[in-house]
Design a protein that fits this description.
The chain has 89 residues and is mainly alpha-helical. It is 81% helix and 0% strand.
């Protein structure tokens, strides 16, 4: 039987990599908020100007930005979940 677990001390630079990944997650969340604001403005502008195409693009942008925020926020939990699923196979 082989028993191998992740080793956080095995390679140099692991802590710096964790810091970089955390910074990228923060940037992703900030960009999601920006995309939500811009999409909401486009949605409102399209609705008020009787432009259904622009309004629908704004709605899609709102949904995509919310989905991106969910994925950025839940990335660690999702990876841990699937790691545990893989360990139980």
């Amino acid at each position: 039987m082989i028993d191998i677990n992740p080793n956080s001390d095995g390679l140099p630079g692991i802590e710096q990599l964790r810091t970089i990944v955390g910074a990228v997650m923060t940037i992703g969340l900030i960009l999601s908020v920006l995309a939500l604001i811009v999409s909401a403005i486009i949605w409102g502008f399209g609705s008020n100007s009787s432009n259904p195409h622009l309004a629908s693009r704004g709605k899609v942008g709102v949904l995509i930005s919310c989905g991106a925020a969910i994925i950025c926020g839940a990335a660690v939990t999702l990876i841990n979940f699937f790691w545990n699923v893989g360990q139980s196979v």
